[in-house]
Design brief:
RNA-binding; single chain; four-stranded antiparallel sheet
RNA sequence: GCGCGAGUGGCGGAAUGGCAGACGCGCUGGCUUCAGGUGCCAGUCCUGGCAACAGGGUGGAGGUUCAACUCCUCUCUCGCGCACCA
């Protein structure tokens, strides 16, 4: 309702995307890969329908600008996809007079400086303008062409390989700078949705226009001399910079910037155009012909037209249609429920009808996170104070498949709510990570594909801890994992090993760890320290690997001399349980109880790492001779460069590798590395 | 075509420019077991060698460096995104 009040929600008739399999319209963002449906991947077709839209285009510039604040915090890939989707281009509007018509036709061009070379005009066949302009003598041919265009699938239409097609509309426009008569054609290489659906064609300097001109024998006029062959002869357009020619006002200029500036100045002066910015982004088609969705809160009155449902009657709820067939059939299911549809006009009290379309699920997902801040609230969608406290979301996790859908829509919603003064921030998600997907039988698992692994069955078989740990251990969170590569049973074994370690501890609760085995304690503190760092870096798969090492080391200590009664073993088991609690909370809780620790591991604090124990006492120093490792020497961690060098040069293996040669240079990175460069 | 991302054992994957292959799977041999499984021990990049050890090795070709999976140039392959946007 707020969007409607702001003029950001409106209804219009247009050619829209239609999914024949889902039996509903789709937003442009929901048409993917060669014109297929995002949901079911059926070929999307076009239909002329009246639908509801959100005016997201009004926010194009801000959606673009505000991405600067997201740089480095969102994956570049997503930012690039949004930038391309918004598709800002700088150029000019140019108005062309039409012979025998009052109203001029406006086109958008990024190259107003080539206006003198505009030798014909092309209009998208499915743009209303084409139908308005076509001369009676050409109408039949045009109608046939339009039909063919509508039938062509997106994939055919988008193919660059495709030969140009088109029809002459029998009309002429006037080039506003040359005054010359130029023919108006219609061709499907011009898109109805972009700009005004009409272009000025400059064949000499645009390959697409040139291909079209050559096919249909239209004139080619070079207006920039780039030093390359004349496009009229070569068939290769020259879009680059050069010296303007055949362009009265521009002749002699050599740079595009001043060319564009001068033409735009001239157009503005004559009232025939102006500098302009356009966007590829289209308004968001939000209405759907489905039952399951929020009804659009508008009442259609024969007297008052569109009337908003009063705020105290919101939200409009769906009728109870239990038992009815709700499968989408191409028309709004709500239309067939007269007792729901028929209502009275809030304005005049006369009979009126509710809007029967529902909103796309992406409308809901664009602001669910605000609702999550105050889920129990009855009187409003969300509590402004609660949202102020919790939002924006610090770290969001979601798949790239939402790059130009959910993630763009949510940014739009947030900006609108900001403008309404309901929130005080303009971006919903401060940081974003794209997690990988789980692949099964060659495809990302999805409900609609039905190739999901039955998690319930997996959990019954292996336990929820094992499944969660298995997924985490399978690889970095950003990468896809193939379910065929994972091994829940191996994780079960690991968790059992960890559990047994806790079970074997026989030292009393509270035993002083400092009296325990020093070597084991060093391992424990070093490993836990590393895990702590890895968690910050979100390297969870490596964390699990380190926990495995910890369990192995503790097991070995118990079995070989240190013994289960050593307090260091207790410390190791407690640390392991704490580390494990992040991935396998139930097993960790059981371990915690076995270790006799107080109520719940969920309330325990992260272990304190002793920096002295963590710091290695001795390290294995590698010695390279001419880049090859020739010796590994155990040295104190605090060894001096001089001592390290001396130890390296005294090593038997190093002496052998030097084979009597002198030492030309020694690079010492104590205590890790000594590199020796032999001389002659 | 343009733009990203990724190429490391049989597999998933580890490695602030500093010991390539951590950890796990799988596999091989052994112990335990009536048996299977579990558990435990040993081995597992390639070549030569009983071994010590030597040589080679991170898609390919060059380069920078004492030292390159890591940085640079070119190239190949795969994946993803965009694709007649005027």
């Amino acid at each position: 309702m707020k969007f409607y009040e702001q003029g950001l929600a409106y209804r219009k008739g247009s050619y829209v995307n239609w999914c024949p399999s889902c039996q509903t319209v789709l937003a442009n963002e929901q048409v993917v890969q060669g014109g297929t449906c995002e949901r079911c991947h059926a070929q999307v077709t076009k239909r002329q329908l009246t639908q509801w839209y959100f005016r997201i285009t009004a926010y194009a510039e801000r959606l673009l600008e505000d991405m600067e604040a997201l740089a480095g915090k969102w994956p570049d890939r997503v930012l690039t996809m949004q930038r391309n989707w918004i598709g800002r281009s700088v150029g000019a509007w140019v108005d062309f007079e039409i012979e025998g018509r009052e109203e001029p036709v406006r086109v958008f061009t990024t190259r107003p400086d080539t206006l003198y070379g505009a030798t014909f005009m092309v209009i998208a066949p499915d743009a209303d303008l084409a139908g308005e302009l076509v001369a009676e003598t050409c109408r039949d041919e045009f109608e046939a062409y339009l039909e063919k265009t509508k039938l062509a699938t997106e994939i055919e239409r988008q193919s660059t390989e495709r030969e140009k097609t088109g029809v002459f509309l029998g009309r002429y426009a006037i080039n506003p700078v040359t005054g010359g008569k130029i023919p108006i054609w219609s061709a499907d290489y011009v898109l109805a949705e972009y700009g005004t659906g009409a272009i000025m064609a400059v064949p000499a300097h645009d390959q697409r226009d040139l291909d079209f001109a050559r096919k249909f024998g239209l004139p080619v006029q070079m207006v920039i001399d780039t030093g390359e062959a004349d496009p009229a002869q070569s068939g290769i357009a020259t879009p680059g910079d050069g010296t303007y020619v055949n362009s009265e006002l521009l002749n002699g200029l050599t740079d595009k910037v001043s060319g564009v500036e001068r033409i735009c100045g001239k157009l503005a002066e004559d009232g025939r155009g102006e500098a302009a910015v356009t966007y590829r982004l289209r308004d968001w088609l939000l209405s759907r012909q489905r039952f399951w969705g929020c009804p659009i809160p508008i009442i259609h009155c024969p007297v008052d037209g569109e009337v908003p449902v009063p705020e105290d009657q919101l939200p409009v709820e769906l009728p109870d249609l239990r038992g009815a067939d709700l499968a989408p059939k191409g028309t709004a299911p709500l239309a067939s429920v007269p007792e729901w549809v028929n209502t009275t006009c809030p304005k005049c009290g006369g009979p009126a009808r509710r809007d029967v379309d529902t909103m796309d699920t992406f409308v809901d997902s664009s602001w669910y996170y605000f609702r999550y801040c105050s889920p129990g609230l009855d009187s409003a969608p969300f509590d402004i104070a609660e949202v102020a406290k919790w939002m924006p979301i610090d770290q969001y996790v979601g798949g790239v498949e939402h790059a130009i859908l959910h993630l763009l829509y949510s940014r739009f919603f947030t900006k609108v709510l900001f403008d309404l003064g309901m929130i005080d921030f303009t971006e919903p998600f401060t940081r974003l990570m794209n997690q990988g997907q789980v692949i099964n039988r060659g495809k990302a698992m999805s409900k609609s594909l039905g190739n999901g692994v039955d998690l319930g069955a997996q959990i019954d078989q292996f336990g929820v801890d094992a499944i969660r740990t298995t997924v985490v251990f399978a690889g970095p969170p950003e990468e896809d994992i193939d379910w065929a590569d994972v091994s829940p049973s191996a994780t079960v074994r690991f968790l059992q090993r960890a559990y047994r370690v806790a079970n074997d501890v026989s030292s009393p609760i509270g035993a002083d760890p400092t009296t325990g085995d020093l070597e084991l304690r060093r391992t424990v503190h070093r490993t836990m320290g590393e895990i702590t760092d890895l968690l910050e870096l979100r390297r969870f798969n490596v964390c699990v690997a380190r926990l495995m090492e910890l369990v192995n080391a503790t097991r070995k200590a118990i079995d070989t001399g240190v013994g289960s009664a050593d307090p260091a073993v207790r410390e190791a088991a407690e640390f392991t349980a704490l580390g494990l609690s992040l991935f396998a909370p139930y097993v960790a809780e059981e371990m915690w109880e076995l270790l006799g620790q107080p109520p719940s591991i969920a309330e325990a604090t992260w272990p304190t790492i002793d920096p002295e124990l963590r710091a290695a006492q001795t390290v294995t120093m590698a010695v390279q001779v001419q880049g090859k490792v020739r010796a590994k020497i155990e040295v104190p961690a605090d060894i001096s460069d001089a001592d390290a060098e001396a130890a390296a040069l005294a090593d038997e293996g190093v002496i052998r590798a030097l084979a009597g040669r002198s030492v030309a240079k020694v690079i010492v990175k104590a205590p890790r590395m000594v590199s020796i460069v032999p001389g002659a």
